[in-house]
From TrEMBL:
<keyword id="KW-1133">Transmembrane helix</keyword>
<feature type="transmembrane region" description="Helical">
    <location>
        <begin position="36"/>
        <end position="52"/>
    </location>
</feature>
<feature type="domain" description="Methyltransferase FkbM">
    <location>
        <begin position="303"/>
        <end position="367"/>
    </location>
</feature>
<keyword id="KW-0472">Membrane</keyword>
<dbReference type="InterPro" id="IPR029063">
    <property type="entry name" value="SAM-dependent_MTases_sf"/>
</dbReference>
<feature type="coiled-coil region">
    <location>
        <begin position="8"/>
        <end position="35"/>
    </location>
</feature>
<dbReference type="Pfam" id="PF05050">
    <property type="entry name" value="Methyltransf_21"/>
</dbReference>
<keyword id="KW-0812">Transmembrane</keyword>
<dbReference type="GO" id="GO:0008168">
    <property type="term" value="F:methyltransferase activity"/>
</dbReference>
<keyword id="KW-0489">Methyltransferase</keyword>
<dbReference type="InterPro" id="IPR006342">
    <property type="entry name" value="FkbM_mtfrase"/>
</dbReference>
<dbReference type="GO" id="GO:0032259">
    <property type="term" value="P:methylation"/>
</dbReference>
<protein>
    <submittedName>
        <fullName>FkbM family methyltransferase</fullName>
    </submittedName>
</protein>
<keyword id="KW-0808">Transferase</keyword>
<keyword id="KW-0175">Coiled coil</keyword>
Amino acid sequence: MNIIQDIFKEFDNRREELEISLEEMRQEIAVYKDKLLLYGAGSAGIAFLYFLRRIGLEPRFFLDADRSKEGKECEGVKIITPDRVVEIAGEDALVIVCINTDGKRYCKSFDEALRIGGHHAVYDKLREAGCKNIIDYTFFRRCHEFFQKEKYNAPSCSDVGLMIKHKNEIADVYEWLSDEQSKDVFEKILRFRLLDDTLEIPTMTQEQQYFEYGFYERRTDDIFVDCGAFNGISFKTFLSENNNQFEKYYGLEPDCVNWNKFMKYKEQLPEEIQKKMYCIRKAAWENNEGIRFYSLHGPGSFAADIGKENVETISIDAMLNGQRASYIKMNIEGSEKQALKGAEETVRKYKPRLAVAGYHRTEDFWKIPLMMKTYREDYKIYLRSYMNHISFVYYGV
């Protein structure tokens, strides 16, 4: 029996003390029935909203510090600014902070969680506005039933039942990891999700994210495929790390606001670099059929059936049309598995270095490395965390 199986066995033995029932959770927040507010009209807030709706609870408002959102609606829920909470909902409203956080939220009771607090800047702002009852949405991860069958991205709260169902694959991935630090990170993420969310995950500086050159050598002929180009930030790091030396760059970004920022960044680059850039306003996907897309016009835009627009998609295999890629990076808000599927031919033929986010959906934790190994059995798999348990990347080398 390996260490992963031991963790699952410990979870089985301690499950009664670790888990609260759905009914317990409902009772804790049902007293705020008409005064339930969600802070953060972003991807985590949207995911939590749909978890609530599934059990028959509806928040009265979204709160968001971005004043450009005031008066608008997010999924049918009106958005107000925090300074209006007491005026509209009263000081005794319950505000659930829906921001993905690496903070520690392990509390044994609802009262304790309300007392301890969370995001300092957000909590301070809400308390200054007169709010008395504030809690992080991560407190509710103790209710495993609530987070079953996740539909949208809530990386701070895992589907524990799904992990139990796939514990053998999780154990296999642990054995494949190529160094002790990867194994340590993997083990602690699993313990964090199942046993103890006060654990510190060994964390690297975010400046190194996607470009861990300790695993492989720099090269001047890189063909870099950047899935989730955002505003050009990853390409900027790539250029800095490689002294502007590369053969070709493909940048894919479907969000229109992010795309415009990306184009402004491109226009500022030297002409000799721009000539080697191929920028594509499409989402990386498994096919070219298009998807529904939820644009947040910043970080976090994601593919979803509740998306307000259709965006074009392209598979990496179709985009390259048999040509080489040497480096593929993916951080695309839960679409990594589909994009990897669309790159299967390229990965099998050219074995590019891979840097793929593994945290947006619960099953990404084991499915991303499983897909890497399925496509190229000779890949070495590494894992590094960049924000405790909620931002980690698998590297295939």
